[in-house]
Amino acid sequence: MKINRHGRAKVLTQSEIQLIFNHGLDNDRDRTLFGVCLFSACRIRECCTLLTQDIYTPKGNVRPRLIIRKANTKGKLATRSIPVIEDLRQILSNYYPLAGDDYLFPGRCDRHISEDSAARILRTACKQAGIIGVSTHSFRRTGLTQMSNARIPLRVIQEISGHRNLEQLQRYLEVTDEQVLGAAASLAMLSPVASNGVEMDIDKKLEIDAHYP
């Protein structure tokens, strides 16, 4: 958990996400901003720098895929094209009248909203919702962890996350105590300890073998 900007960003539960969006974020722009972060698992910089044309057609329709340009990615590795699922499409459809001419999330001086501004908005929303340990990176970690828990192959998740390699991606994924317990419990099938019924059968066999060598 991240405390005072130290540690790993919290992976959000569904109830925490609902609290943040319904009781923390207080306008369509902010809900759209972090909705994109959640449903595309992108970095906050990648989201802040989105252009309106990366999301909408000239007629204002939401594109089937959003474009994250190579120049705005970490390490400038490659442009990513991410499918827009129905939940995100609805959020973006409602937001379109507010979208800027150039940047999807405009800021001051004809620029996009800054990462620091986005972080301040989220801190205020989380304080309002009573949730601690959250950072702008929480939405990315939450999205990637959800896909992993849904048993999506890591190589497929990597296409969405844009990580250079699978090792980097794996460091993002949250492992819960329940998952560790489940992994340990799966070893029970290897147990050398027989049940009472089996022990009785073995004792009976030894008795028979003693009488009939």
Question: What would you say this structure looks like, in words?
Answer:
Helices cover 50% and strands 4% of the residues. The protein contains 10 helices and 2 strands. It has one domain (14-172): Intergrase catalytic core (hpI Integrase, Chain A). It is globular and about 70 Å long.
**Rg computed from alpha carbons, rounded to a whole number of angstroms:** 25 Å
Total number of beta strands: 2
Strands of the widest sheet, in order across it, are 1-2
Number of domains: 1
Sheet with the most strands?
2 strands, antiparallel
Query: Based on the structure, what is the oligomeric state of the protein chains?
Result: single chain
CATH architecture annotation name: Orthogonal Bundle
**SSE topology string:** HHHEEHHHHHHH
Which word captures the global form? globular
Mean pLDDT: 82
Give the percentage of residues in beta strands: under 5%
CATH class: Mainly Alpha
First-last Cα distance: 66 Å
Please identify the structural class as seen in this structure: mainly alpha
User: Helix segment count?
Assistant: 10
Topology of this structure?
Elements: H1 14-24, H2 28-40, H3 44-48, E1 65-68, E2 80-83, H4 86-95, H5 115-129, H6 138-149, H7 154-161, H8 166-172, H9 177-185, H10 196-211
Antiparallel strand pairs: 1-2
Helix pairs in contact: 1-5, 2-4, 2-6
